[in-house]
Amino acid sequence: MGRIRSWFFTGLVVTAPVLLTIYITWSAIEIIDSQVANLLPHFAETAYSDIPGTGLLIGVALITVIGALAAGFMGRWLISFGESLLNRMPVVRSIYGATKQILETVVSAQSDAFREVVLVEYPRKGLWVIGFVTGNTKGEVDTLIDHDMVNVFIPTTPNPTSGFLLFCPKKEVIFLEMEVEEAVKMVVSGGIVTPPDRSGGKTIAKTAAPKKAAPKTATPKKASSKKSSSAQVAVKKTTAKAVTKKAAPKKAAPKKATAKKR
C-alpha cells in the first residue's frame, strides 16, 4: 500500500501542472474567442467561429494594425483627440490614466520595472523580505528625501498581485542574482520552491554586525576622559581660589597698622 500511495502522489505531481496549464490556456482562448465573436458582426455565423483560437488570432491581428496606425500622424491625432474626450469624464479619466501609466511602464522596452530582485530589511531590523524594483524614486518624494532612493514592491504570499510599496535607500537594498520568475515562484510557494544560489557565497548581512559594535566600546572611554579632565580643572580652580583668599588678609593687615601709628 505504501508503494501504491507513493506512485499515486508521484503521478499527481507530474500530471497536475500539465492539466492545470491546459485548462487555464483553453479557458483563456474560449473567453477571447467569445469576446471577439461579440464584437465582430456576423462572425458567429461563419464556419471559422467553431475553430478554437480563431478569435485570439483575429484579436492579435487587430491590435497589431491599431499599433501600426497609431505610429502615424493621423493615428496620433486620433489618440490625442480620444484622450481629450476621456479626460473630461470624472470617473473614466482616473481609470484610463492609471491603466495607461501602468501599461506604459511595464511594456516599455527602456523600463527597469520588475527586472531586479532585492532583499529589504522589513518589517523590522533582522527580518528580510523579497521585493521587486519598479524604478527610481521621482517627483516630490525624491525632492523631499536627500538620498538615492528606489521604489520597491513587496509582494504578499501566496498572492503576489497585492503587496506594499516602499521607498528605500539604494545603499540599504541588497540586489539578488535570481531571476524575477524564480522570485515569484518562491513567493507564491511560501518558500517551498527555492531557486539555485548564484551569489557565489557572499555574506552581506553577516559582515555588518562588527561595524556597529566598534563605536560602543570607544564612547565610554572618551566620556570618562572628558569627565576626569573637567574634574581636574575644577580642582585646580578651587585650590587657586583658596590660595588667593588666604593670602589677601596677610597683605592688608600691615597697611592698617601703619595708618594708626601715624
Quick summary of this structure?
With 262 residues, the protein is α+β, with helices and mostly antiparallel strands. It has helices at residues 2-39, 54-70, 73-86, 90-107, 140-144, 180-188, 209-261; strands at 116-121, 128-136, 149-155, 163-169, 174-175.
Could you explain the architecture of this structure?
The structure is a single chain. The chain has 262 residues and is an alpha+beta fold. 59% of the residues lie in helices and 12% in strands. The protein has helices at 2-39, 54-70, 73-86, 90-107, 140-144, 180-188, 209-261, and strands spanning 116-121, 128-136, 149-155, 163-169, 174-175. A five-stranded antiparallel sheet has the order 4-3-2-1-5, with helices on one face. The longest helix is centred in the last third of the chain and has 53 residues, at 209-261. 5% of the residues are buried. Mean pLDDT is 76; it is low at 205-214, 217-229 and 242-262.
